[in-house]
Design a protein that fits this description.
With 553 residues, the protein is mostly helical. The strands form two sheets. It has a three-stranded mixed beta sheet with strand order 1-2-3. It has a two-stranded antiparallel ribbon with strand order 4-5. The two termini are 46 Å apart.
């Protein structure tokens, strides 16, 4: 736990400097600076991620990358130190003593959660090895040929490698998801303002959904899985978007810049996990305004920011797999010698993820919706998750109804809220019909139900009933959290974070290089490197060593 907190303090210092510098850039080019500390920290995380990915294209992401980052942060402090200090002092003074105590408690609590917990299977299957490849070599051409799961390139792995501190501690920390969860929980705390205003807004209902999500991952956030990072980021985007809309409804001057920057954050979610792509539907709002007013300079800036965010991730994917958007083999743009050429295996691997998520292992990949859905609903979901899915089905109908009513009555002022509901609904439907494992789409499931439920309760003036239910459920969740803390407080992780598993592996020779593998085709952990679940004999090294990459034989 102590190493987690020290690691976070280092990360917070770096990402705040980067985020503040980005905010100043935004102020000079878009005439809008980020207003809150959590927004600046999120911007800093995005900049760190882009930096780590670009660095990985040329060299390993280790001590060298951190030294440059520290020097850059020092330079930012020299150039902007007074402004930064004034911003921090102002933000600190605006917080009450009680709020500061809650913030500290949340910081320590998420540090506790991130120091121990349940390791999701993929963590020791390929996540740890993916991160170590970045720590040791940066990017390696054709790495997906060694193991197909390496082809599922996530920018989170580069960010995790940047802040893993392996060069300092001798082993790799995996604390990024915990810090992102902490940032989201700080955002959730804004729900306290509903007591002052006497009612809940849609953004508050989104915060309720986020709070529920955070209580489902506190025992898993230790894992460097992209699922948690992308879900938390989607919650962050939707909450900030709705809060901005609600601020404008209170009479403040409209500014399209916050929405444009949030769309850049939407592009970032895609680099975390490609399946989050439909969140980009939100781009319709800033695109419409900017095109209508012919603000070409701002359009160019947003496009440049989006490309800077996404292109390094795309380049990494091409270098690892030979494909622009792996595993979508229909988009075939490159002819390189390291390309993953077996289209049957690529499509089968993608299909197996869907089958597993649907709980349809015994039904086959071509099972129709009417066959796999009842089986999935009955066997793969808990009682609460079944209620949420049923609520989402009703919410889809309600959302379509709201859209039709809005168009018929020409209530164009509702289009902004309808865009958010429609985006969340599309994200949910894509998840439901592709790979509906809760871990892959909890944000979509919760946001759709929470927002539509909040809309209906406020319209029917039944919100007080909802408040009572939320209060009771909140008390129950606090008890569950207390019980969880009691259950794992005996684990000896108050200094060191619980690390990857260790396994007895076998090895084989590939062109003079030792490759480890699991004799049971299972977990391989992090320590023995390079390691894969099963031996791959149909590949060759592209050169004399691992740094030259792999190609199919």
């Amino acid at each position: 736990m102590l190493t987690v907190i020290i690691n976070w303090l280092y990360m917070l210092l770096i990402v705040f400097c980067l985020g503040y510098a980005f905010s100043r850039f935004s102020g000079k080019t878009l005439h809008y600076e980020l207003e809150r500390v959590d927004s600046i920290l999120m911007a800093g995380l995005v900049v760190s991620t882009v930096y780590a990915q670009i660095f990985s294209l040329f060299y390993r992401v280790s001590i060298e990358a951190n030294v440059i980052l520290v020097l850059l942060s020092v330079l930012i402090c020299v150039l902007m130190g007074k402004r930064m200090a004034g911003f921090i002092k102002g933000a600190w003074k605006n917080c009450s003593s009680g709020y500061k105590i809650v913030l500290l408690a949340l910081f320590l609590l998420w540090g506790f959660f991130t120091s121990r917990g349940y390791m999701v299977p993929d963590m020791d299957l390929y996540h740890g090895q993916s991160i170590r490849w970045i720590e040791e070599y940066g990017v390696v051409e054709g790495l997906g040929n060694l193991h197909s799961r390496f082809g599922y390139n996530s920018s989170l792995f580069a960010l995790s490698a940047l802040y893993s501190m392996k060069f300092l501690l001798g082993h790799s920390l995996h604390t990024v998801n915990g810090l992102i969860a902490f940032l989201l929980s700080v955002n959730v705390l804004e729900i306290r303002r509903c007591f002052r205003r006497g009612k809940m807004l849609l953004s508050d209902y989104a915060r309720v959904g986020a709070a529920y999500y955070l209580t489902t991952i506190w025992d898993e956030v230790i894992a460097p899985s992209s699922d948690y990072a992308v879900m938390c980021t989607i919650f962050f985007v939707v909450i900030k978007w709705l809060a901005r809309l609600e601020t404008e409804e209170e009479g403040k001057e409209s500014n399209i810049a916050p929405y444009g920057l949030l769309c850049v954050l939407c592009a970032y979610t895609i680099t975390l996990k490609l399946s989050a792509g439909l969140i980009l539907i939100l781009i319709l709002k800033p695109a419409y305004v900017l095109l209508k007013e012919k603000r070409w300079k701002e359009i160019g800036i947003y496009l440049l920011l989006g490309l800077l965010t996404a292109v390094p991730w795309m380049v990494r994917t091409v270098l690892i797999t030979g494909w622009l958007l792996y595993p979508f083999a229909s988009l075939d743009l490159f002819s390189v010698d390291w390309k993953m050429m077996n289209l049957g295996e690529i499509r089968t691997d993608a299909a197996q993820i869907e089958i597993w998520a649907k709980g349809a292992n015994d039904l086959g990949m071509d099972a129709p919706f009417g066959l796999w859905f009842p089986n999935w609903f009955r066997n793969e979901l808990s009682a609460t998750e079944k209620l949420l899915v049923l609520a989402d089905m009703v919410s889809c109908v309600v959302t379509v109804g709201i859209g039709v009513a809005t168009i018929i009555r020409k209530q164009w002022q509702k289009l902004d809220m309808l865009l958010v509901l429609g985006t969340v609904m599309c994200c949910y439907l894509f998840w439901q019909f592709s790979a509906p494992m809760m871990r892959y789409g909890y944000a979509h499931v919760l946001l759709l139900a929470a927002l539509v439920c909040g809309f209906v309760l406020e319209k029917l003036k039944l919100a007080r009933i909802g408040y009572v239910v939320l209060l009771l459920y909140g008390v129950y969740k606090l008890y569950v959290g207390y019980d969880y803390v009691l259950g794992c407080c005996q684990l000896p992780n108050y200094v060191w974070q619980e690390t990857y598993g260790q396994y007895e592996l076998e090895s084989y020779d590939l062109d003079g290089v030792k490759i480890y593998y699991s004799p049971s085709g299972g977990w391989v952990g992090y320590d023995l490197f390079p390691a894969i679940p099963m031996p791959e004999y149909e590949i060759d090294l592209r050169g004399n060593g691992l740094e030259d990459g792999f190609r199919q034989r």
